[in-house]
């Protein structure tokens, strides 16, 4: 069986668990039938009793919809529990006790003819808008049987060093990754959320690369009639001072939100994955081919082979754009017993407006200082030279914006925002809080913080009003949050650090006890108490800490947390920081425009920009509970 990715079928279900679109690929399905026949003939039922659960044929749409609804009922939600709980049944996904089963699921199909039950796996589940997308890649029957055995295992979890686990099984299946890409691409098409990687264009001339023209056009050049349509540029919000004003360029067609367009979906599937094999999942390329077709001017020279990722040859003013976009994730505890966690994930976005089929090469610098942990490249790239602090990259660029490289690194400069957040409940409906933050400490120019906001979310309490004045910035409230805008657009922070404090109080609407659902096991025991329980009559005379009593009393009445909100199992746990930094990367990763080479040599300016944005940047309440990862003892 081929080692690439082939798709047997895909389904799209609406919020009512009804199949609104499906597509089966007979060519791939014939491969599955042949593999099943070979596997069943090679072993007897005594040796392999699981063979009877292998479904040689794909289910009908009603059969799949019924099985999907049954799984949602059995697993408690669309994605399921993900871990083994008291409600888990043997043979179900949650019985495997691995969170990945919330994204790679199985269905037990009850066939209309014969009344037999068959296992269908692996189904990639992707939720986009109001739709659930299921993609079934081609695997070998032995992989299906291995998963069926995992669903019957008496123990739970994945022991370290054990081969017989779901993780080791998935590592043997490269088609899983391709199926995820297919699911996400289809989700973007049906919801109109087609977004290309962001490439920022400097409004002022930058230093050119090798053989660059100092008089080259810096503005957004027009793409010829044979290329893809260009979206209107969006002006970026730039602070005063040394910040660079620029534009963002993209070729992605703006589809907008709309009902499911089956004709568009069929056209995309036929072009992107003919006969069930993904070829090019770029909607921009598919859209361009469908809109413009081909002409004799799109044919490359006979001695050059045109790659699949570049269906058109660019014509127009030439230039090369690079943007490093880094996202920083942090968990700040301000506790001696728990170290702060800080990580950086980044990517180098590129846009090559170059005629013909040139090769571009440049050295990546700063790898040693950036302390890169994970590194991956676009299929168009080759990495012929590697060193401790230098890595040469050569690539044949596709049209439009694309991600040339992704990486994970350690932030060498330290956290751009550090400090602490404290919130103490002085009564059931009132809390006192304090922020003390240091911004851009140790950061120097050209690094510029364009904006910085801090949000205190209260998803289970309604904010009535707050009282407090920050040392800098403005404050606003919503029904369930308080937002502190420390730095706003037009007031960028460059070359210096500042300290920001914000003491205050927040008043909530009166607390209302909420009834908790009761879960009773088959032996008659109960997993949770409800409102009629006598737990609330606990004796509080011996409680010295009134705040601890209030937190216990309020948290006891909170409804069970949704697995989609991992941070919100209590109501007062954290504050979230959002910001944007421009001017350079914080990992040390960089592209030197002077070192960029283009072959054959052309006169094309090379521009480089960078930006850093916050991901999950969390300030945990120093006075509350918080999760942390346990460190291994050496």
Automatic annotation (TrEMBL):
It is found in: Endomembrane system. Its main location: membrane. It is a peripheral membrane protein. Residues 1-22 form the signal peptide. Residues 317-582 form the MHD domain. One of its GO terms (biological process) is protein transport. Gene3D superfamilies: Mu homology domain, subdomain B (2.60.40.1170). GO terms for cellular component: AP-type membrane coat adaptor complex; cytosol; late endosome; lysosome. InterPro entries: AP2_Mu_C_sf, AP5M1, MHD. PANTHER family: AP-5 COMPLEX SUBUNIT MU-1. This is MHD domain-containing protein.
């Amino acid at each position: 069986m081929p080692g690439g990715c082939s798709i047997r079928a895909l389904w799209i279900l609406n919020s009512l668990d009804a199949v609104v679109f499906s597509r089966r690929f007979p060519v791939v399905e014939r491969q599955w039938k042949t593999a099943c026949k070979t596997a069943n003939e090679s072993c007897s039922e005594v040796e392999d009793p699981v063979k009877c659960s292998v479904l040689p044929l794909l289910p009908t749409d009603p059969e799949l919809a019924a099985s999907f609804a049954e799984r949602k009922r059995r697993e408690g939600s669309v994605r399921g529990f993900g871990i083994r709980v008291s409600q888990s049944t043997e043979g179900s996904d949650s019985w495997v006790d691995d969170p990945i089963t919330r994204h790679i699921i199985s269905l037990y199909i009850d066939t209309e003819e014969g009344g037999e039950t068959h296992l269908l796996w692996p189904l990639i589940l992707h939720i986009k808008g109001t739709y659930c997308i299921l993609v079934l890649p081609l695997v070998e029957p032995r992989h299906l049987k291995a998963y069926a055995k995992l669903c019957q295992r008496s123990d739970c979890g994945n022991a370290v060093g054990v081969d017989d686990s779901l993780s080791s099984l998935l590592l043997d299946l490269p088609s899983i990754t391709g199926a995820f890409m297919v699911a996400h691409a289809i989700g973007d098409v049906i919801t109109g959320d087609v977004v290309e990687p962001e490439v920022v264009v400097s409004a002022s001339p930058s230093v050119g690369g090798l053989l660059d023209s100092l008089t080259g056009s810096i503005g957004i050049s027009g793409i010829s009639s044979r290329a893809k349509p260009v979206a209107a540029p969006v002006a970026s919000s730039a602070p005063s001072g040394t910040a660079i004003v620029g534009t963002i360029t993209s070729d992605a067609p703006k589809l907008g939100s709309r009902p499911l367009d089956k004709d568009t979906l069929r056209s995309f599937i036929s072009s992107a994955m003919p006969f069930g094999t993904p070829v090019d999942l770029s909607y921009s390329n598919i859209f361009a081919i469908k809109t413009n077709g081909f002409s004799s001017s799109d044919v490359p020279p006979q001695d050059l082979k045109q790659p699949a990722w570049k269906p058109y040859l660019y014509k127009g003013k030439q230039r090369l754009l690079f943007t490093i976009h880094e996202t920083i994730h942090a968990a700040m505890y301000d506790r001696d017993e728990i170290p702060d966690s800080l990580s950086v994930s980044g990517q180098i976005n590129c846009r090559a407006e170059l005629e013909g089929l040139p090769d571009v090469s440049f050295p990546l610098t700063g790898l040693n200082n950036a302390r890169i942990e994970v590194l991956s490249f676009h299929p168009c790239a080759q990495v012929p030279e590697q060193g401790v602090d230098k890595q040469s990259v050569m690539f044949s660029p596709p049209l439009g914006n694309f991600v040339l490289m992704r990486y994970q690194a350690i932030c060498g400069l330290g956290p751009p925002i550090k400090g602490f957040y404290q919130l103490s409940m002085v009564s059931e409906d009132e809390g006192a809080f304090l922020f003390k933050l240091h911004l851009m400490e140790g950061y120097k120019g050209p690094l510029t913080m364009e904006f910085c906001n801090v949000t205190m979310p209260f998803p289970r309490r309604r904010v009535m009003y707050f009282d407090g004045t920050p040392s800098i910035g403005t404050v606003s409230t919503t029904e369930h949050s308080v937002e502190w805008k420390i730095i706003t657009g037009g007031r960028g922070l460059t070359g210096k650090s500042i300290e920001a404090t914000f003491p205050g109080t927040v008043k909530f609407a009166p607390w209302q006890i909420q009834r908790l659902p009761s879960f009773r096991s088959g032996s008659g025991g109960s997993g949770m108490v409800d409102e009629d329980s006598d737990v609330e009559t606990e004796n509080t005379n011996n409680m010295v800490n009134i705040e601890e009593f209030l937190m216990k009393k309020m948290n006891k009445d909170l409804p069970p947390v949704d697995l989609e909100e991992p941070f919100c199992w209590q109501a007062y746990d954290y504050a979230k920081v959002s910001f944007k930094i421009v001017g350079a990367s914080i990992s040390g990763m960089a592209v030197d425009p002077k070192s960029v080479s283009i072959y054959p040599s052309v006169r094309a300016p090379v521009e480089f920009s960078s930006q850093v944005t916050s991901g999950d940047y969390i300030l945990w309440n120093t006075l509350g509970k918080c999760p942390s990862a346990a460190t291994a003892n050496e």
